[in-house]
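Support reply, case 0932

Customer input (verbatim):
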Amino acid sequence: MEQRRLPLKALKALGSGTDRRSLLKSLGTAAVGISFAPVLQACGAEKGEANKLNLYSWDTYLGETTLADFKKAEDIDVDLSIFATNDEMYAKMRGSSTVYDVVVPSNDSVTRLIRTGLLHEIDHAQIPNYKNIGEGYRDVPFDPGRRYSMPYTWMVMGIGYRKSKVKQVPDSWEYLLASDLYKDKIALVSEPADLMRIAAKYRGYSVNDITPERIAALKAMLLKQRPFIKTFHEDNGQDLLLSGDIDVVMEYNGDVAQIMQNDSDIDFVVPKEGSLLISDSLCIPVNAPHKGNAHRFINYLLDAEVGKKVSEKILFPTPNDAARALMPASYKENPVIFPPAELIRKSEYAVYNATLQPLFDRAVDDIIAA
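Our regenerated output:
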């Protein structure tokens, strides 16, 4: 299986389909700390700051020439470091002497970073391109008023599937969580909070109304399903689906949209029960050494044309209305990238819960080990 996946990763790195996280896994730790330009003599950077910026993000989560174009526009060199999970990002920010200027956490991690005092409040006056962001992404529960974060992408968890291998469209979480119909051909996400929230959604609960008692019941349900699950993936589920190792997978819409370009037998559905919405945001750490450059970079990413080039590459839904307006119909009208509104209305953003997180972790550890 690994020998089949690695060439795909290499192909993605060269500019075909990309996903936001999996390149790091195939290239190893050598991918961390990639520098995209040499450090040049300061010129044109904000007074008192070097002409550099330290970016900490998911892999393959920019346009083909985003950083080079930013260098040309602002004469600021970007040093990119990569993380594979929000927990990894949080631990590095909390316990490392390494400092970053811009980080790209997911919504519940934004709340976690705010509560622990790790984010700097964003000066909206320095982000004029915020005007390009749609109204629905401006006042969000994980950061009311967008005081500490700027929207970058959003996504929804759903079911990627191989059409020739399913009996009907798998439009319910039941096919993954409580059925043997696709036994040994199922892959679930390994991220504990996300998996337990999806299980809660299937059982009719809000993703933000999970109690310890409900966690115990959800764990029992997943333990019963465990013999039929082939693997728990770390956001490479789209590769497992593309390679034929599994037939149905819990995965993000953008990841599946990417591989659909390579295989017409693959499709995606948001289950009828609703799902989990994710929003990745641009944030400035409280100890960022180049806060002025950070504001410039965030404003640059929110430019319409820049956002268009990013969306063309990564195929995740954009909250940037001005960028979306520049995209072709194949993007704007794609029901995988932008699922039906009635299903999105049934889906929710999760709010970080420090009390429940260790319970999620222990439950999913036990399920995977069973």
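We compared this against your earlier run and they match. Two observations from our side: The longest strand covers residues 150-162. The two ends are 23 Å apart (CA to CA). Please reopen the case if you see a mismatch on your end.
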